[in-house]
Amino acid sequence: MSYIPTLEEARKLVAEHNKEAFHIQHAETVSGVMGEFAKKFDPERVEFWQVVGMLHDLDFEEYPEQHCIKTEEMLNALDVDQEMIRAICSHGWGMTGSKYEPQAQMEKVLFAVDELTGLIGAAALMRPSRSCSDMELKSLKKKFKDKKFAAGCSREVITEGAERLGWELDDLLQQTLDAMKALDLQF
């Protein structure tokens, strides 16, 4: 039987391999957003989705050139569940050398929201509230269209993520924004 880490165990693993506050906050944000989406799409496995979100960038700080590849090695060494490893590594499809194309709903959601949470977080930092709680879709769309704003957040990946989910881009933007609002995050 393979191992499924708890959310707390996943947090400890992230802290072992990441020292930058930004990376730890990103892991927490993606984990929380994944949990919000799981409530809609897979309510029996909310923590599983949260752990996937928490661990998705496990190797990024130590091995940016081998992102997702090293994560797979690290998690295989711990005998982590293969469905979880596949979901985690699939977010790097087309970008990192990951061999896993996002196919399951959870994988598609992670692929779509990873970059988008970064964009929303950057937009929240520009607000007086330093939060997305008072952000509207119109404002987010304006930031999305400005290619110079948060230039490291790939609009192409976000758009492809919406397409993989079969959603309009506005739906993905709104649902992710709503998920982040539900988490009441401060940036």
What does the secondary structure layout of this molecule look like, with pairings?
Layout: H1 7-17, H2 21-41, H3 46-55, H4 69-77, H5 82-90, H6 105-125, H7 137-145, H8 155-165, H9 169-183
Helix pairs in contact: 1-3, 2-3, 2-6, 2-9, 3-5, 4-5, 5-6, 6-8, 6-9
Number of strands: 0
CA-to-CA gap between the ends?
Answer: 39 Å
What is the chain-wise order of helices and strands? Answer: HHHHHHHHH
Largest sheet: none
Contiguous helical run count: 9
User: Whole-number average pLDDT?
Assistant: 96
Radius of gyration: 15 Å
Form type: globular
Low-confidence stretches: none
As for the number of domains, it is 1
- Helical/strand content category: mainly alpha
Strand fraction: under 5%
Helix content: 55-70%
Provide structural commentary.
- The chain is mainly alpha-helical and 187 residues long.
- The chain has one domain.
- Helices cover 62% and strands 0% of the residues.
- The N and C termini lie far apart (39 Å).
